[in-house]
Target: Glucose-1-dehydrogenase
Amino acid sequence: MYKDLSGKTVIITGAATGLGKACALRFGSEGANVVINFHSEKQENVVQEMVNEIKDLGGVAIGVRGDVTQEEDIKALVEEAVDSFGQLDVMINNAGIENEVPSHELTLDDWNKVISTNLTGQFLGCRESIAYFLKNEIQGSIINMSSVHEIIPWPHFVHYAASKGGIKLMTQTLALEYAPKKIRINSIAPGAINTPINAEKFKDEKKKKGVIDLIPMGYIGKPEEIAAAAAWLASSEASYVTGLTLIADGGMTLYSGFQAGKG
Model:
């Protein structure tokens, strides 16, 4: 637990499911004010259940529907957080999508959809929160959700890998630019995590084993393990950390083929 997170206001985009949901619940358990951004009207009931669960955990939460690819929606998201809780302290740009397509068949629409959600959406979240922090002289924290695929090439997912590679240098560039203002900007690069986006693949035991074989620690990660990393990065325990990509992957990026002295 990080006592300094109690009472802080945290926006989490794409927070109705997966890593975003785990982050929302973790920050709620820290006593934070959690702004749960979600995209679809179908998610409203889930978000209301999360609001109630966070209240039971000792935090406070609201749900705010919005599309991270739209400037006005991101501006409204920040305004709603400030109107509801008085101040914004932490921005977690988590919303992201992926789909598998051989690169020579990838349409421009599919490319643009992934890039606009994963990269442009995170830029807009960074820009609006930084502008707010500067205007109000707040030493805020921003956490961008990347992936091991900012490092590991991923055939059939060129748009996703490109978006995550972009997040890496966007995070580092913004961290360097705003470090003098004590605004900390970091990212997390998860490996294989047991989230709804991966659920269908992991139902197939052969595919699941194929993934586990790539992980030196020998298991698929839990969303709560990524949420724990986010809580640390947002806390004062990480006060001297900026421009970092925190890789949480069970060792996937360590070239697992060499693990048993191979190569």
